[in-house]
Amino acid sequence: MESRHPSYVTSGEFTTAHPDLLAAAKDFADDYPTDVQQPIAFTHKAHLEHHMKCANCHQGVASGPDATIPNVKLCMICHLVIATDKPEIKKVAAYQKKGEEIPWRRVYWFYQSAHVKFRHGPHIRADVDCATCHGDMKDQTVAVRKAGLDMGFCVGCHRVHKAPTDCTTCHY
Ligand code: HEC
Ligand code: HEC
Ligand code: HEC
Ligand code: HEC
Ligand code: HEC
Question: How far, in Å, CA of 33 to CA of 24, rounded?
Answer without folding.
Answer: 10
